[in-house]
Structures are given as C-alpha cells and as structure tokens.
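Honest question from a wet-lab person: if I give you the sequences of every part of a complex, can you actually get the arrangement of the whole thing, not just the pieces? Trying it with mine:
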Amino acid sequence: MVMSGKRVFVSGVGGELGTTIAGLLESESWVGDLSGIDADPPRHRLHRTVFHRIHPDEHDRIVDTVARFNPHVLVHVGVWEPDARAAPSAAATLTDQAATSILGAAAECAALEHVVVRSGIEIYGRGRGALTRPNESAPIAPTSDWGRTVAAIEQTASKVGERVGVTVGAVRLAPVLGPHVPSPLGRLLRQPGVPFSVLADPPFAVIEDRDAARAIVAAARVGLAEPVNVVASGAITALQAARRGRRIPIPLVGPDWRVARALSFLLGAPIPDHVSEALHRGRLADNSRMRDLLGVMPEHGTVDVIDRLYHWPSIIHQPARVQVA
Amino acid sequence: MTSTLGRVVNFPIRDTAARAGAAVSRAATDVGSSVIRFTDEQPGVVDDWGRDPGLVRTIITASRLRWDVTVGGDQRLPRRKGALIVVNARAFALAPVYAALALSEVVDRPVRFVGRPDTAPVGAFMRRIGGLLDHPDEVAGALAAGQLVIMGAAHNERLRKVGRVDHALIGGALAAGVQVFPAATSSNPIGRAARLEIGVASRPPRRRRGPLSELELADQVGCDIELLLLELGDLRTGTPVDWLPLRGVGGAS
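Yes, you can. This is the full assembly:
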C-alpha cells in the first residue's frame, strides 16, 4: 500500500505494546497525523501522537474522538489479556467494550481504508488433535477465554470491514514478553519456582514486545488483508525455561495444578487458563508467512526472549535521601 | 465464525492452486530452516516442532541396543528441501521410528515421523523425539518448512505386500511441492539387524488436476515399496530353516 500523510489512530496506546507501536509509527514516513486512545497514559514519551485518555465504557466520547479524527488506518491493540493488568472477567469486559466502541466508531469514518487488529495464536485452541504448529489457514477453535476473546475481536473487525468495505488484517501474536509488558506467562516464569507438567512439558513459543510492535506497524504499512502469525522462531518448554533462568522446576501432575494455581495467585502471579493450557498442551504456530506478508521477521528467537526475560533487572528499592515522614 | 472471517479477512489459502503456491513459496523461503545439521543442534532446547535434540541423541544411543540399522539410498534424498518418505510397517515394529532415528544420523538432518498420539505422556514423549500428528496439515507444514518426514504404510499380513498408503498425507506432500520417496524396511523381531532402503522418488502415473493425483501417487508409492521389498531378497537365518520352501519367513516387512 503506497501511502503518505495518512492519519493513523492507535487504540490501546497507553499499554507498553501500544506505546511502542505509536513510537515506531512516529518515525514512519507515510504516517501523517497520529492519535491514540486508552484508559491509561502512554508508558513512554511520544512526540507526535495526540493522546486521549478515555475509559472503554465511555462510548460516546470514543465515537466522538475517533469520528473527529477520521483516520485512514486504525490500529486496534486495545485488548486486555486475562491476569495481565486485569482479572479475567474484567479483562474480557474491557476488551469487548473497547472493541465494540472503537471498531464501531471507525466504521463511521468516511476516510477509513484499513484496519489492523491485535490477535493471538490462542485463537487456534489446543483441543485434542489440534495441529502442533498451526498456520493461518488452520481452523479457529479457541479453547481458552483469551482465545475466545481474540476470536471475537477478529470477528467484530471482519464484520466492520465487510460492512464498510475496508481491508482488515489480524496480527496473531504469540505470548508477548518484554521488560515492562504485563504478561502472566512472563510473571510466572520469573517466580523463584516454576511449575511444569511432568507428563507433558510441551513446547511453546513467544514474541518480544518490540518484534510484535514492528510486525503490527508493518501490517499497517503494507495494508495486511489477512491473518498472520507473529511468532519468534524456536520453542522452549517450561522445564527448559526454568533451567535457563536458574529457577526451581516444580514438577506437577493432575490435581497438584489446582494447588499450584492457588499458591501462584497468592504470590502475585495468577495462572489464567490460556497460560495453563500452554503449560499443558503447548503453544506453537507457523510463522513462515511473516516475511511474505509483512516483510519483517522477529529479531529475537524464543530462547533469546526467555534468556532476556531472566536478565531483566528486578525492582530496586532505593530509600529517600531525606526521610520526610 | 470461520466462515464469517473468511469472507472479509482474505485467508491465504482458498483453493488448491493457491494452497500449493503458498506452500511452495513457504518451502522456498524457509529452506534455511532445513539446513540445520543434526550434529549442530543444541541440547537443552526444543525446535519449532517440539523435538528435543538432546533426547533424540540419547534415544539413538539406546536404540542401538535394539536395532542395528543399515541405511541405503539416502543419497537420493534432497539435501536441503523437504521430502516425504513412505516405509512399509509391521505391527509393533516401530519402523517409522527406527527409520527416522537411523536416517537422522546418516543424512545429518532432523528427521520426523508421522503417527504420534495426542495424549500425554506417550504423545508428549514422541513429540520430543520428532513425532508429528497423523494429520495432512501437520505433515504439509513440516514438509513446506523443508523437513524430512517419514510415514508408515498400513500393515499387511502378507509378506512383501504393503498396506494402504494414506493418500491424505500424500496430498500434504503434493500441496507442499516436495517429492515422495518409497522406502523398504526390514527388521527382525528377535535380532538387531534392520535395514532401510530408500528408492527413487515415486511419480504419479499421469498428471491430474484434482485429488486423483494423490490417490494415484499413493498407490504408486505402495507398488514401489513392494518392488524394493522384493529387491531386498529373502531372509537368511543361517540355519537349516533357509532350506525350507518358505519364502520370506519372518522377513521383510
């Protein structure tokens, strides 16, 4: 898609991924005006992006803001992964509200040409007999709350595209890990003890946040009109990850997982069902169409991302120089 | 849900021609993934399909206690591209498994086999040693990524006869645009000697545009394996049993 001076609207610009995407879009030559919306302010300093702080349930304000901006390209990354920043039920509600309001508002914009939505490889599900490495043509059969949520986003976006006649691209991300990304999987792997399924210990793949952001920006640039899996090459199991991070591997079987989930919740690293599914059934996807469709490939493999996960510095508490209270 | 998405989000694979084109494109772009040498694989991590090189090496060492496999015809296999190898199989003989392990060492590339279950712990273990699900899309995905994949034909009680070759899996190879090689395996239930002989790539008897191509190629592969089995010759036990007119007692297959 040859473009210049396009108005781009980013929903979910307050999250780590959204902020990184907005930062990358600011340096794209084809991008003209840039605007974003979220319930929280951006994590980094953005120079060109006009930010609107609006809660997903403020439907009228969202419609007004989006319609007034009249974007050519909508990048929808305003999704809440369960147990990342919100509890599963709240995450599902917020995601649904944001998808309905923002995609619905975009449909009212006369200039809209293209929509990119953030999805996930959880959309393929991990039911019995599910493909080990599904490609984009594999059936959509989500088996977790998060998988059903991203499937609903894709469905909503496709309906909008169908109604208003614009192209829709879905970027199906592997679990996103990064130094500041709230990820239930990353949080669990960084615990002192990492549970793993002693009977299966299946492989899973991840993607680093910056690689995910580059892929989404590329999807907006090329006018992606189909789904694409964005997954770092390689794979790793929970046991292997624990060993690489010098964590204590905790072998679990059957009912032990209930106890582990409860304990992990109390320790501040809840295990939502899609993470539990990844630890029991694995989570891989075929990324071979990334280069063809987006023209980019991840810079970091899964093992690199996991190694970097364990090298991120922990929070360092520094006492105030002058005690005032 | 799928149909609704399919109407708007243009899924990449819509028809056979596009499917084959996409697969060939993937194969061309992913040749790099197939050049990973078996001896260069790092232990402690798994590959894109969950195969654990360290565990595979351990299993190969352990398997030498059970099988002493002689491999022939491996020079016919492509060096970098993917290929589907179809072997004859006998019940409980684990022919695809020992063939994959032996071939891995000989061609110095990871070799996968079709037919792992999807239940833990057996399925999980077989995935770690290179097992793939018995699903055409799974096989096509691996072949398109430049992998060598071994599948077994169905068992046939008659000696030197090959059971049904799953044409759906052959269709996966056609979709991926890779060659299909027949291979004869021979093993002994009580001895260690085993053999894997790979023949020249099978060709369909005539060009077809539709699914008949995979059916006819599957039949052709079965015939080619039977020819290879005949070429392997009769079993020689080194005992007076060899003098009896029992052709192929306990032999190939």
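Two things worth pointing out. Residues 65 and 215 of chain B are 38 Å apart (CA to CA). Strands of chain B lie at 68-72, 83-87, 111-114, 131-132, 148-152, 179-187, 193-198.
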